[in-house]
UniProtKB/TrEMBL annotation:
Spans through the membrane: 42-59, 71-88, 108-129, 180-198
Name of the protein in question: DUF3159 domain-containing protein
Source taxonomy: Bacteria, Bacillati, Actinomycetota, Actinomycetes, Micromonosporales
Matching InterPro entries: UCP010219 (IPR016566)
Species whose genome carries this gene: Actinoplanes missouriensis (strain ATCC 14538 / DSM 43046 / CBS 188.64 / JCM 3121 / NBRC 102363 / NCIMB 12654 / NRRL B-3342 / UNCC 431)
Keyword Hydrolase: no
Amino acid sequence: MAQPESLAELLNGRRAAVDASLPPIGFVAGYLIGGPALGERGAIWAGTGAAILVALALSAWRLKRGDKPRAVVIGLLGVCVAALIALYTGRAEDFFLIQLFSNAASALAWVVSIVICWPLLGLVVGGVLKQRTRWRRDPALVRAYSRGSWVWVCQYLIRVAVFLPLYQSGRAAELGIARVALSWPLVAACLAVSWWVIQRSLPPGHPGLRHPRDGELLRNEKQGVS
């Protein structure tokens, strides 16, 4: 029997996390290199310029590989907005302000989705598998996705807990390092742990994520048997 795909394979989490970490690396490199000669304001210009150049090169590479233009444009736009915020405020740490807010908002959104029984992990995986919301008719999958979603909440909260004190202290270089350290390594851990939680939560004999079972049919079968 073929082994089921992991969440990392289904969601292509490794490439997305690596791509997201490259522009911040460019920003920190440009900021640190430009700092001694250009001063704080000039260093911010150097950092934002480097980040945008990296994002443009990455976007061109992704388009060449056949990625969806919409996803590429959104990624590039995010870097440009972060750069504009830092240039407007004149504070290098503000380049990471969007990341701080987005992680806090993501944690809240995932918690709400679990509470209302529409776990975002199910919506994401269901979308990738082209199931739409069929998985919601399977109580076992809803429960498994809800439990797995808590792992993702923890991922976002960890980032907020690390980013917030660094941001408040104005430590832009450390923020860049933290952004990279908490990208692919944390995403990889989140994917692995949430996959383990889902697998442990599914009852024996369940056909897996690709084959949701209709809860109403299951109840009817049990009533017929009894």
